[in-house]
Design brief:
single chain; 4% strand; globular
């Protein structure tokens, strides 16, 4: 029964993670925390072990969805490598800080982060200053299947600093960084949502390899549960990437905003009332 629940959570995490570029960890982590605390499915799984399980899963969701987005040419490889260069050292530091977080604190800080990101996306049409990043940085153009042209870009130094903190949050919370970098790419750098998602999953894949290495060294990975999580997440990521092609940009942003808000509020509630 436990392995069936794990597999289902993995499938859902893979679908949602690949669909909106989150990597799946932002679904898996709160879902396992909720099932563990409310129904005692996994009483032996601490926040640290759930994060370890999440980062292992994200190697496979990242690989699966990246391969799918490569086929439809919505991966900006140069940007993905630049973002990875900034995020990689952050993931290592975040993983070490993770050791000192108890469950209520983990839930509270994680929830605040998700709600903040959701609010940023809600206000994104009113944030006009973002053009500064494009005008003063590396510019790229992209034409979508509707022949709509996008111009996006970023100063490389700023992108490295930003993705360092994205990597830190990824190592700390096991979320892959997609939940932070996708809103930043859309809001600050004016990435087309489909390109932001494809590029995010490429970065998530690379970062998850570094992130998982650190968590393995710290003993945070409950290997027996990967048997259920990894295949489910891999299949789910392929399904999510396929759905992504059939949704318009505004729908993707709306889904992303709602998912972050619901999960964030739930996590804050758990953090406050379980302390």
């Amino acid at each position: 029964m436990v392995f069936l629940v794990m597999a289902l959570v993995g499938i859902v995490s893979g679908i949602v993670g690949a669909l909106i570029g989150l990597g799946g960890g932002v679904i898996l982590v709160p879902a396992l925390l909720f099932l563990g605390t409310s129904f005692e499915f996994f009483p032996e799984l601490s926040p640290q072990k759930i994060v370890g399980l999440s980062v292992i899963m994200m190697i496979f969701t990242g690989m699966s969805s990246t391969l799918a987005y490569m086929k439809v040419r919505t991966v900006d490889y140069k940007s993905g490598l630049i973002f990875f260069a900034g995020s990689a050292p952050g993931t290592v530091i975040g993983a070490f800080v993770n050791k000192n977080l108890d469950l209520p604190s983990f839930n509270l800080y994680f929830g605040i982060l998700l709600v903040f990101l959701s609010i940023l996306l809600l206000l994104r049409n009113h944030l006009k200053a973002v053009n500064w990043f494009v005008d003063n940085g590396r510019k790229t153009t992209f034409t979508d299947k509707y022949n709509k042209q996008y111009v996006y870009g970023y100063p490389i130094l700023f992108a490295l600093l930003l993705t360092f903190f994205v990597g830190f949050a990824s190592g700390l919370f096991g979320i892959g960084g997609g939940s932070i970098i996708v809103p930043a790419m859309i809001l600050l750098f004016l990435f087309p949502p489909h390109v932001a998602i494809g590029t995010s999953m490429f970065m998530v894949f690379l970062s998850a390899i570094v992130n998982s290495t650190t968590h393995i060294a710290l003993g945070h990975v409950p290997w027996v549960y990967t048997i259920a999580i990894v295949p489910g997440a891999y299949i789910g990521a392929k399904i999510g990437a396929k759905f992504n092609k059939n949704l318009d940009s505004e729908m993707l942003v709306t889904i992303l905003r709602l998912v972050l808000l619901v999960l964030g509020l739930r996590s804050i509630y758990e953090g406050i009332f379980s302390s």
